[in-house]
Design brief:
The protein is an alpha/beta fold. The protein contains 12 helices and 23 strands. The strands form 7 sheets. It has a 6-stranded parallel beta sheet with strand order 12-9-8-5-4-15. The protein is globular.
C-alpha cells in the first residue's frame, strides 16, 4: 500500500511540474496550474558530452540545492572546439561518420554494458536525472557551428533536409518528456557575408523547428533560439509561430553592456513575447579575451557584475535569468581538457559550482516570487532622484500594476527618491533587501505619501554596495522580501 501511495505522490508531483506555458500577459512563464515560473537557468553546455553518470548526478543535485530550475545543455559536442573529434566519457560518438541521418544508436540502454549504452542513452540519462530532481533541460539539439560556416566550415553537417528529419526524430523521442525546453541555434550569426559569399542560415533552423513540432504532434514544448553575442532571436524570428519566447546574449565582452535596454526593446515588439538573457557575462570569465589585448588588469566578471546585470534586466521585465560560470559550462578538468580562453582561471568545475554568485542569485528568484508576479511592470518614472546613465550607477524600478508594491534596484549605496503614489494605500511598509545575503531590513512603516527619499543601510557590511528598496501596501501584509 505504501508503494502505491508513494507512486501516486510521485506522479502528482510530476504533473505539477509539467510543460511550461507562456502566461496571458505574454511576458512571463507559468506552469500547467497557472502558477508563476521564474526561469533560473545555468549554462551547462557540455554536460552531456564531458561528464559521466556519477558526475552528472553531482552537478544536477548541487544546482537543485542552489535553487536553479533550468539547465541549458547541448546534445552534441561543439564542432569548433577541442572536442570536435572526441567521444563522450563512455567512448561514444553521436553519429556514424558525422552523418546526422545515421544516429549511432544501439539496442538496449544498460549503462553497465558498453555495447548497449550509446551516446544518446547518456543524453537520455541527463534529461531523466534532471526530471527526477524537478529540473527542466533547455536542450539545444545542435550548436550553431554545426550549421553555420561563419567560424569554420569544418564542422558543418546540417542542411534543410537533414535538419528537419533530425528535429522530427528528437521531437518524437521527447514528446512525452515533461522537462524539455527546445533551444535552437547556438552562438552563430544567421545572415552574414563570408569569403565574398552571402549566407542566410534561417531556413535550416526553421526546418529543424518544423521537424521538432512534427515529431511532437499534439504535444508542444516551449521553443526559442540562442543567437550570437550582441543579438536577439527577435531580430530574425519574431513573427515565427514556433518561437514561443525570445532569447538574447549580452555575453562577455564588456561590463557596460546595457542588457536591460535589450529587454525593453524586445518587449516593445509585436506580437509580444517573453524575453530572456540566455547567456549573460559568466562569473570568472575574462572580460573580452578575444581582442588580443587582454591582461589580468582588465580582469574577470565577478559576482557584483552578475548581480547588477541580472537585477536590472529582470526589473526591466525579463522573464527570469540565466547564470553561467566559465569553468562550469565547459566542465573544466585539466587532466582531461584544455582551457578554452586566454587568461582562464584554472578552477576545477566542482570547486566552481560553489562560486560566490551561485549562493546569491537564488535570492533574486525568491524576491520576485515573494510578491504578485504576473502584474509586475517596469516603471522608471517612479525614480525622482538622479537615475544614473550606465552600468555603474543606473537605478532601475519596477512596480505592481495593481498598486501593491514597488521595487527599486540601486547598484551603489546612495539615497534614492521615489514617487510612492502608485501605491494608493495610506499605510505603507518599506524594506531594504540585500542581494548578497537575501536578508531584508525594515526601513519605515506608516503613513507616507508623495515623493519620499530613502537611504540604504550602512550595515551589515561595507561590502553591501547594491541594494533593493521594496515598498509595500501595508494592508496586503506581504512577508519579508525573501
Amino acid at each position: 500500500m505504501k508503494q502505491v501511495v508513494l507512486l501516486l505522490l510521485c506522479l502528482s508531483w510530476r504533473v505539477s511540474l509539467a510543460q511550461l506555458k507562456v502566461n496571458s500577459n505574454h511576458r512571463s512563464f507559468q506552469d500547467e496550474k497557472g502558477k508563476p515560473f521564474f526561469w533560473m537557468g545555468d549554462t551547462a553546455w557540455e554536460l552531456a558530452h564531458r561528464l559521466d553518470r556519477q558526475e552528472t548526478e553531482t552537478y544536477l543535485e548541487t544546482r537543485r540545492r542552489q535553487g536553479f530550475n533550468v539547465i541549458q545543455v547541448v546534445a552534441l559536442p561543439f564542432a569548433n572546439e577541442v572536442d570536435n573529434k572526441k567521444p563522450n566519457r563512455y567512448g561514444d560518438f553521436p553519429f556514424v561518420n558525422d552523418n546526422p541521418d545515421q544516429l549511432a544508436i544501439t539496442p538496449g540502454n544498460n549503462p553497465n554494458d558498453a555495447a548497449q549504452y550509446d551516446y544518446w542513452d547518456h543524453v537520455d540519462f541527463v534529461i531523466q536525472t534532471a526530471a527526477r530532481k524537478g529540473l527542466y533541460i533547455a536542450l539545444s539539439p545542435v550548436w550553431g557551428d554545426h550549421v553555420s560556416p561563419h567560424w569554420s566550415p569544418k564542422g558543418v553537417i546540417f542542411n534543410e533536409q537533414n535538419a528537419r528529419s533530425y528535429g522530427k526524430y528528437w521531437g518524437s523521442r521527447y514528446a512525452n518528456q515533461w522537462n524539455i525546453i527546445w533551444v535552437l541555434g547556438g552562438d552563430c550569426p544567421l545572415v552574414y557575408e563570408k569569403d565574398k559569399r552571402h549566407y542566410d542560415d534561417r531556413p535550416v533552423w526553421r526546418a529543424m523547428a518544423a521537424g521538432i513540432e512534427e515529431g511532437e504532434g499534439a504535444k508542444h514544448h516551449l521553443m526559442t533560439f540562442h543567437p550570437k553575442g550582441g543579438k536577439s532571436s527577435s531580430e530574425y524570428f519574431q513573427q515565427d509561430n514556433w518561437l514561443d519566447f525570445n532569447a538574447f546574449q549580452s555575453s562577455h565582452g564588456a561590463r557596460g553592456t546595457d542588457a536591460w535596454n535589450w529587454v525593453t526593446r524586445d518587449l516593445a515588439l509585436k506580437p509580444t513575447k517573453p524575453t530572456l538573457d540566455m547567456e549573460p557575462c559568466y562569473e570568472d570569465h575574462p572580460v573580452n579575451p578575444w581582442d588580443g589585448k587582454w591582461t589580468r588588469q582588465r580582469g574577470y566578471f565577478n559576482a557584483y557584475d552578475i548581480r547588477t546585470r541580472l537585477y536590472r534586466s529582470v526589473f526591466a521585465g525579463m522573464s527570469g535569468f540565466t547564470y553561467g560560470h566559465h569553468q562550469v559550462w565547459q566542465f573544466l578538468d585539466t587532466t582531461r581538457f584544455i582551457p578554452l580562453s586566454v587568461g582562464d582561471t584554472i578552477i576545477g568545475w566542482k570547486q566552481a559550482l560553489h562560486a560566490e554568485a551561485t549562493g546569491q542569485i537564488q535570492y533574486l528568484k525568491q524576491l520576485m516570487l515573494s510578491r504578485p508576479y504576473f502584474s509586475r511592470v517596469s516603471d522608471q518614472s517612479l525614480i525622482r532622484s538622479v537615475k544614473g546613465t550606465d552600468y555603474r550607477d543606473l537605478v532601475m524600478a519596477a512596480r505592481d500594476s495593481a498598486g501593491t508594491y514597488i521595487m527599486v534596484y540601486l547598484p551603489q549605496r546612495a539615497p534614492v527618491t521615489v514617487d510612492v503614489t502608485t501605491i494608493p494605500g495610506s499605510q505603507k511598509q518599506a524594506w531594504w533587501f540585500d542581494p548578497r545575503t537575501g536578508k531584508a531590513i525594515p526601513d519605515r512603516s506608516g503613513r507616507f505619501t508623495g515623493v519620499v527619499t530613502f537611504t540604504p543601510p550602512s550595515q551589515p557590511s561595507a561590502l553591501a554596495t547594491d541594494w533593493v528598496l521594496v515598498i509595500d501596501d501595508a494592508a496586503r501584509k506581504y512577508p519579508f522580501p525573501k
